[in-house]
Amino acid sequence: MPSALSALSAYRRIFAEAPGSLAFSAAGFIARMPMSMMGIGMVTMLSSLRGDYALGGAVSATIALAAALLGPQVARLVDRYGQSKIALRATGVTVIAMGALLLCAAFGAPDWTLFVCAAVVGCMPAMGSLVRARWANLYQGSPLLHTAYSFESVVDEIVFIVGPILAVGLSTSWFPEAGPLSALVLLALGTLMFCAQDRTEPPVHPHAHATAGSSALRTRGLLVLVLTFVGVGAVFGSVEVVTVAFADHLHHKALSSVVLAIYALGSCVAGIVFGALRLKGPLSRRFLVGIVTLGVSMLPLLFVKNLVALAVALFVAGLSISPTMVTTMALVERIVPTAKLTEGMTWTTTGLAVGVAFGSSAAGWTVDAAGASSGYWVTVAAAGLSVATAFLGSRRLRSAPEQREGARVESNDPAEPVEQLGR
Fold first, then answer.
1. Confidence band (pLDDT; 50, 70, 90) for 6?
2. For residues 234-258, b (16+ Cβ closer than 10 Å) or e, as one string?
3. Would you say 342 and 129 are in contact if contact means Cβ atoms under 8 Å apart?
4. What is the pLDDT of residues 171-202, one digit of tens each?
5. 22-196+220-398 is classed in which CATH architecture?
6. Would you call 370 exposed, middle or buried from its count of C-beta atoms within 10 A (0-12, 13-18, 19+)?
7. How far is residue 345's CA from residue 226's CA, in Å, rounded to a whole number?
8. Greater confidence, 277 or 14?
9. Helix, strand, or coil (residue 57)
10. Which of 275, 189, 221, 402 is nearest to 2 (CA)?
11. How far apart, in whole angstroms, are the C-alpha atoms of residue 218 and residue 197?
12. DSSP conformational letter for 402
């Protein structure tokens, strides 16, 4: 196991050797806050305003599903025309749509208006993919890319620790719309700051898109990752909705954000350790182990009876998340052509978004129909789906060709030095 000093040194290097990286990573952190705030913010807001968990889950699912449909198209434009040009425009549309949604909720507009606005909100750029694309441009073929991806996974978990607490806290202690409204402000501010860091923006590839216009989804092995992540996303979406309802059932609704933060803390701790490790063996095998571990770790949720037990179970379950996410992004970086990297990463998060949409919606209906604790059966079923998909697609992943220039085919270890060409 790495010492604390060696882990700290590894993370310090990724910033020291790439001027400007700290600025774009910090801006990306702010711009990613809404991804942890909008879902739980919608559930909290609409359950408070209209007393309907199913409506909150369905609106949240609509945003996630719209992001799944629109996100890869936005990412494809990013690869072709540049991050700043496309991200600013997509964020502007999102800000307008989210503002309209909040007004409709506040003034009691019909339910269908919420879904129309939510569908447009889904065009927000996948900021996590944009940040990772910058790291890939800086450290392609270097062992530091593994550490950079691990750092961003930790940042994601910090987002999921802070975001739900902020969203639920504002919506329950101030006014119901306060959580989603704060997410909207952070999205606008973070995107503006991120796009201002043009020195580290990856180059565009208009010629590559003109001559090979097929989607990155046709890359061998990528569809397996996307479909597996549908199940993983359903786990995330259902855990979020059911945990809020479970805490509400115990008359401690405001504590749901704390319990979800503990869930994210488990992933954060695992991510910090994982980033400092130097692992051997194929990425495809690591991916399969991570998915299986994630699936098994969800089983204890079926037996929890109080918030303390739930927090412990979710912390343990969270330990498998960051390592699995880091391994998945490393696989995408290896198998998807450079000219389509942002799109490839966004397809993976699209799988998550589709899963979140189905998971949160199914969990909302299950909670309303059978009670709060019954909702965790949705989580376990989703975990089983992801494990089955990973097993069925494991051969395709193992045989996926590497697309990185200079990548050594005989090793899938991102921690080993890889000679780079053309840089």
1. low
2. bbbbbbbbbbbbbbbeeeebbbbbb
3. yes
4. 888 888 888 899 999 999 999 999 998 888 88
5. Up-down Bundle (1.20)
6. exposed
7. 10
8. 14
9. helix
10. 275
11. 31
12. P
Secondary structure string (H, E, C) spanning 249-317:
HCCCHHHHHHHHHHHHHHHHHHHHHHHHCCCCCCHHHHHHHHHHHHHHHCHHHHHCCCHHHHHHHHHHH
Show Cβ contacts of residue 83 under 8 Å, excluding neighbours closer than 6 positions. Answer: 130, 133, 134, 194, 195, 201, 202, 342
Q: Is the pTM of this model over 0.70?
A: yes
CA gap 122, 59 in Å, rounded: 11
Helix 283-297 vs helix 376-392: angle between axes, to the nearest 10 degrees? 160
Could you tell me the residue ranges of all domains in the chain?
A: 22-196+220-398
CA distance 21 to 57: 36
Lowest-confidence region among 193-202, 203-212, 236-245, 385-394: 203-212
Q: How far is the C-alpha of 365 from the C-alpha of 55, rounded, in Å?
A: 9
Q: Which of 10, 5, 56, 93 is nearest to 276 (CA)?
A: 10
